[in-house]
Amino acid sequence: MRTTRLEAFSDGVIAILITIMVLEMKVPHGVELSVLWPLFPVFLSYVLSFIYVGIYWNNHHHMLHTCRKVTGGILWANLHLLFWLSLIPFATGWVGENHFTASPTALYGFVLLMSAIAYFILQQTIIASQGPDSVLKKAVGNDWKGKISPVIYFSAMVIAYLEPWLSMALYVIAALMWFVPDRRIEHVLHE
C-alpha cells in the first residue's frame, strides 16, 4: 500500500481533533469583555494543544514521505499514535476547565508522554520496514528532541503535584523545541 491513504486518514482524524477542541470552548453569556476572562485558562490550554497537534501533523507528514510502502505494522503503529492524539481534546478540556490544577495538568502530561512514545514506535516501525538504508533512519540521526521530550513530559507530570504552572511551562518549552519544523527529513529527501 502507498502512503497516500494512510496520510489522508491521519489528516482527517487530526482535523476532527482540532474541531473537537475548538467546540469545547463555550460561548459566554453576556456582551462585556469581562465575560471572556473565565475562559482564559480554556483558551490557553486550547492554544497549547492546537500547537501540539499541529507539531504532530507536520512531523507525521514529513515522516510518511520517507516511506516507500506501508505495512500492517505501520498501520497499527499509526493507529496507536492517533489513539493517544485523540485524547488530547479531553485532556485539554479538563486542564482548562479546572484552571491548571494538579491532576488535570498531570493527565495532560501523561497524554503528551504517551503520544511521544507512540510517535517513536511509529518512527521505529517505519525504519524497520524500510530496511538498513532507511531514509528516515538517516534523517532522525541522534534525535535529541525525541529523547528529551518524554523526559520533560514525565518530569512535568510529577511537578504538577507540586506546582502545576511550572508543569505547564515545561509543556510550553517542549512545544517550543518542536515548533520550528524539523528539517532533517527535508534535507535527506533532497540529497
Structure write-up:
It is a multi-pass membrane protein. Keywords: Ion channel, Ion transport, Membrane, Potassium, Potassium channel, Potassium transport, Transmembrane, Transmembrane helix, Transport. Its main location: membrane. Belongs to the TMEM175 family. InterPro entries: TMEM175-like. The mean pLDDT is about 90. This protein is about 75% helix and about 0% strand. Helix 3 packs antiparallel against helix 5. It contains nine helices and no strands. By secondary structure, the chain is an all-alpha fold. It has one domain.
Helix count equals 9
- Order of secondary-structure elements: HHHHHHHHH
Number of domains: 1
Main sheet properties: none
pLDDT < 50 runs, ≥5 residues = none
By secondary-structure content and strand pairing, the structural class works out as mainly alpha
Total beta strands = 0
* Helix-residue proportion: over 70%
* Overall shape: globular
- State the separation between the terminal residues, measured CA to CA: 25 Å
Taking all Cα atoms into account, the compactness measure Rg is: 18 Å
Tags for this model:
transmembrane helix; globular; mainly alpha; transport; 191 residues; TMEM175-like; 9 helices; DUF1211 domain-containing protein; potassium
